[in-house]
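Record passed on here:
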Amino acid sequence: MKFLTAIVLASFLTVVLCTPDLTAADTWKKHVVHEGLHTNTAVAGDFSGDGKPDIISNSGGKTRLFVAPDWKETIIDEGQGHDFIHSEFFDVDGDGDLDWMGARYQPGWVVWLERPARPLAERWKFRLVDDQINGVHGLLKGDIDGDGRPDLIANSAQPRSPFPNSAAWLRVPKAPHTAERWDRFIFADKDAPGLSHYFGVGDVNGDGRPDISLAAKGGPQAEPNSGEWFAWWQAPVDPTKPWTKRLIAERQPGATNIMPADVNRDGQTDFVATRGHGGGVIWFEAPMWREHVIHETLKEPHSLVVVDMDADGDLDAATCAYGDKKAMWFENDGRGRFTSHLVADDQAAYDIRAVDLDLDGDLDLLIAGQLSKNVAWYENPRK
């Protein structure tokens, strides 16, 4: 299939395909895991090895493990400068348990914590992933080189050397316990200006290779006349070689999140996006990247997940907006028409994850609330 690579013409009309927010009766049950500290990131996985999904977050220079179902806290790492705003997890060293990765924005720093044999009784070993990229405002796992093992994707969003206005994917080295750093490959080489943010990964053009999407907020903190775009980078046959940037849309103030998804089930890859430093949740329809509104006014939706929230076979979306302090999910009818559902009021977030935290067969929402100073999860009421 062929995709346009030219800039989308401004003459395309924006089609509003949203319905009014539903009432607070749809609010999900709130479970507070931790509160009192500014928290930017939280992830869920079976870190204790008991078969239940636990939660790891970072706040106040400490990385905290909360063990399900009572969420008892264990400090697994702490130190000066150990303030991480993004995180991921997978089995880095192939020993059968989950390790944790954290990223600091500036000075740029990506690290991993090796899970010990007794994860609740021992501090996790602190190891370096990368300290050369700078301005890490996104961390995502994905198998970029097709070897069956996860890699990491991270920004180098600051306009400073050695990798200004760039983004990288990072491969686990053959000996991760002794390597000085992971293998670094710059896929967006100085062509991601304007303070880029979060990533998406997926095969956009149908060639069987995972491509990477990215957004840049622009605005007064960025270099003049930079940012305010959504784009994707086309993977070459050899992903260690240069990638090709493809613009999706420009003049998008506050652009932050962009994820590939077949929204209308036509077999082509569309994109769902948010303007997390501006306003609005939108999607771009392939192949012309026609813009459709999911929610026009939601202020600063600085997080995004694209999943099948209601298990009806199509892809929905969820976000938490720190400007409006609302968590919402958007129900897709399978043709790209969305109904807005309120999850929670008075909840802000930098990070949102869709995970079945109570193991009842549906997806709940885990939120790291930076301005709310909490880690909370919201129980899906669907039966």
In short: The radius of gyration is 20 Å.
